[in-house]
Amino acid sequence: MEVAFIRWTWLRAVLHNGWWLVTSVYLVVDAGLSPAELVLIGAVQGAFALVFEVPAGVIADTISRKWSLVVSQLLMGTAMIATGLFESFPALLATQVLWGISWTFASGSDVALITDELDRPDEINLVLTRAARAQLTGAATGLILLGLLAWATRRDVTIVIAGAAMGALALYVALRFTEHNFVPVRTARWSTSWRTFRRGLTLVRRSRALLLIFGATFLVNGASDAAGRLTQKQLLDLGLPTAPDPVIWFTGLGVAGLVVRAIVLRLAARRISGAHAGTDYALAALAGVLSMLLFAFAWEPVVGAIAVVLLTGVVTPLTRVISTIWVNARTTTDIRATTHSFLSQVEYLGEIVCGLAISAVARLANLPLALVGCAVLFAATAVLMRQPTNEDAAV
Q1: Residues 274 and 129: beta-carbon distance below 8 Å
Q2: What CA–CA distances, in Å, run from 386 to 181, 293, 379, 383?
């Protein structure tokens, strides 16, 4: 199961990251969306995902984690295909909403499934770290393959092909994943689902450490998601060449970020799951402040590219892996997927609240000032993560 899980993680990363590379350029160059529209898509997407997160997590904890992942893959593939078929803002907004909903059936379900099937608490953190590294190599492969495909053919065609492959990946999950250590609820599913939800909520409410990481996730995800959606627009405004195709330049930039990310995760593999996790999270947030200020006041595309690599190579991977391990270490099998879904809900809530705020700044002021707003959010995260958790146990 461990091998199948890591292979699936790699394949999904190939398709997801390659698709988003092409889509992010497609939204700016082909669809011509404004900075405010780009961030607004993230906020609306987050709002719908927020609504679906709790029922999706409870379904995974009461019915099946494996089949939740199958549903996720099918919805994801459909959304990806549809994105390449439209260029109007309302239609693209709808496809991205479906894309966000598809992730709610996977968030928490994947970690809960491998944790239970592996059934080795002393090794799960290392497995999750290996899965994170598989995501990196898969992402690099996807950026290169789909970036070249988009250059050789067309962006919309590449988007549709990636979507069809993502949908087909549901078959791999159905055939290769096992679910031997999970006992589904056969009777009184609604009442059991409600109890599962309440137990997860009680766990979070009573744990200062979980509340701390949830607060940090709200801020960091709001900042990084808004910044990520503005990357292409800012670099093109700074003068990034559009010949032979901007996808080629963004492919190289994405691969550079992944190389840095792989090095960072390799060096931090042991440390981020130990007693220094909170400090490392705060340091990553400070790196986010630096990257956003550098990006906001960049005077040429090379400087802007360095800022993007710092964000995608250091800040995003460290905060995401630490938060996943942090939550996974403080929950139990019966509510594991639900608790991880709560974490995803906080991510989406950050996208909504912070995304709308950043979108308003971009619309009323300018793009650089919106990026400064992202830097402020990262700074608040660093301050928050230096607060004590009152827990003796290491993460």
Answers
A1: no
A2: 37, 22, 11, 6
Cβ contact 230:362 at 8 Å: yes
Residue 235: which of 302, 289, 287 has the closest Cα? 302
Type of residue numbered 372? V
User: What DSSP line would sit under 230-280, residue for residue?
Assistant: HHHHHHHHTT---SS-HHHHHHHHHHHHHHHHHHHHHHHTTGGGSTTHHHH
> Could you tell me how far CA 331 lies from the centroid of its own chain?
21
- 8 A C-beta contact, residue 73 and residue 15: no
* Amino acid found at 58: V
Distance CA 305, CA 172 (A): 36
For 102-123, the pLDDT digits (tens) are: 988 887 788 888 888 887 767 7
For the record, the structure tokens of 214 come out as 């949830």
Convert the pLDDT of each residue in 269-309 to its tens digit.
Answer: 666 665 667 778 888 889 999 999 999 988 888 899 988 88
Q: Are 228 and 279 in contact (CB under 8 A)?
A: no
